[in-house]
Hints:
By secondary structure, the chain is mostly helical. Helix content is 54%, strand content 8%. The longest helix has 29 residues. It is elongated. The two termini are 39 Å apart. The model has no long low-confidence stretch (mean pLDDT 94).
Amino acid sequence: METKPKPRILSGMRPTGALHLGHLTGALDNWVRLQDSYDCFYSVVDYHALTTEYEDPSAIRANVIEVTLDWLAAGIDPAKSCVFIQSLVPQHAELHLLLSMTTPVSWLERVPTYKDVQANLKNRDLATYGFLGYPLLQTADIIIYKANAVPVGEDQAPHIEISREIVRRFNNFYGPIFPEPQTLLTPVPRTPGTDGRKMSKSYNNSILLKDTEADIRSKLKTMVTDPARQRKTDKGDPGKCPVFDLHKAFSTKETRDWATHGCTTAAIGCIECKSKLADHVVARIEPMRQKREELASRPDTVMDILKDGSARARKVAQATMDEVHRAMKIAY
């Protein structure tokens, strides 16, 4: 009997440095689970990093390694998944160029994040085609592997919808070359940082996957809690407490029940609650940190994994580009 091929997915991360707990709960845990049921392509998207970091790209190469170390330590298996660097597959850039021939500028200008990111990064000159064309490059990343789906949270779903529109327009001109990528919605829990806002390195409120036990405990000690609990004798509301959000992501049900009861009755203080949370976070992160440290001692091995994955990705991407060349009458 023939084995039915697995459906394919594509996802990626910009190389912005070492990853934090939000990346783990929001993406990596899911990526690891998907490896057994999908043909997974996971890309470190360094071209995308250049859309905002083009003035000083000096950190990108080192950050590619940092991201990959965290992926491998979290359980991404190169034997199961194709792990690669976007720029080592130049076909991405070529397909991006060809998609730009057919995509109306107005489609790109209406993407919500186009103006949002410009507003948030006022210190950067983002009036470039590279930044405007980000959705086209993202579409090329997905469809060059004919990915059936892209795992995203609900807030990212509009990005996949514009990819579907771009594909429909391209196929209308040149024939059914690409499948329309589906949105593989995944629950993405909100992971608060130590200041209560969304965890982000730009906010300096993150707990990194490479942090030591001492680092983790020190950072969690400073984490904000329910503002109603000014004193230990004040009763709290776990639903308003960022610490409890992390309990939901990392602690056992037994610990969550303990924290809920202790908080709402003022039987425990916030320090006790944070200490118990730290126990669970450390138990989860420490084995990953040790694996990461061991991998970091062998940087050539990590780069070999990326080069091998990129070579595999290039073969798939070039087969797709051969089809595109024929369809667009530029196969010479």
